[in-house]
Specification:
27% strand, alpha/beta, 263 residues, 5-stranded mixed beta sheet, 13 strands, 2 domains, 8-stranded mixed beta sheet, Dihydrodipicolinate Reductase, domain 2, Rossmann fold, elongated
Length: 263
């Protein structure tokens, strides 16, 4: 079995890691690399960076494309993949709930699988799963996420996904809080509620040079604090999850949101 893989956003920091991972895995073959920067540069052998996604899909016919581009383009990119019959593995964050739902419906109507994950680090996914379990037993929780200062979206997709998972099991994680007044607007972070107005989880986003990605979920109750934290020191940690998703989607033509669903 050899899975033909295209990498979109191949010249970005995450994209370069994906390219190396695909090249070094015996079950995957890099067939195209696309980016708006570095057009014509060689990434491996005779594979050079192309700028047009649609042309690359038609010319190289990948089985799977891995997309690490940017929030402003990911929705249109994803629709193009699905309409072209190419399964996307999407690590780009910033998709709205309504857009994810639309992609789910498009995946069904085109008969083309789609994998979306806010985070591909196994430890980060476990942190999210542990937080969902803890949310059953605590009635107060907040999320602090910390990323490098070049990240374009806030809160992070990981923080939003964590809050979604917590809200599924606990409708109110601000039990007993008094109504406070922000002296400076935004001091209490952004309030997350799901479509059913459940959750009530404040999310705080920090952007700072020196970070790659970190997140801590803080739970409180009388006399105790529980903190569940995950730190990322380099982008290599995401690659085991990426290649796991690629191999899973090659065998399973369905819609999946979140790496926890294939662990």
């Amino acid at each position: 079995m050899t899975i033909k893989v295209g990498v979109i956003g191949a010249m970005g920091k995450m994209g370069k890691e994906v390219v190396k991972t695909v090249i070094n895995d015996p079950e995957t073959e890099l067939v195209c690399a696309v980016d708006k920067f570095g057009t014509g540069e060689s990434v491996f052998g005779d594979i050079k960076v192309e700028s047009d996604i649609k042309q690359a899909l038609e010319a190289h016919k990948p089985d799977i494309v891995v997309d690490f581009t940017q929030p402003s383009t990911i929705f249109e990119n994803a629709k193009l993949y699905l309409k072209s019959g190419v399964i996307p593995v999407i690590g780009t964050t910033g998709l709205k709930d309504s857009e994810i739902n639309e992609l789910k419906e498009l995946s069904k109507s085109t008969g083309t699988g789609c994998f979306i994950a806010p985070n591909f680090a196994i430890g980060a996914v476990l942190m999210m799963m542990f937080s969902q379990t803890a949310a059953k037993y605590f009635n107060n929780a907040e999320i602090i996420e910390l990323h490098h200062n070049q990240k374009k979206d806030a809160p992070s997709g990981t923080a939003i996904k964590t809050a979604q998972m917590m809200a599924e099991v606990n409708p109110n994680l601000q039990s007993g809080n008094i109504k406070d007044t922000e002296v400076i607007n935004g001091a209490r972070g952004a309030l997350y509620q799901n479509s059913d107005k459940k959750g009530n989880i404040n999310i705080h986003s920090v952007r700072m040079p020196g970070f790659v990605a970190s997140q801590e979920v803080i739970f409180g109750a009388g006399g105790q604090i529980l903190t569940i934290k995950h730190d990322t020191s380099n982008r290599e940690c995401f690659m085991s999850g990426v290649i796991m998703a690629v191999k899973h989607m090659y065998k399973n033509n369905n819609f999946i949101f979140g790496l926890e669903n294939i662990l």
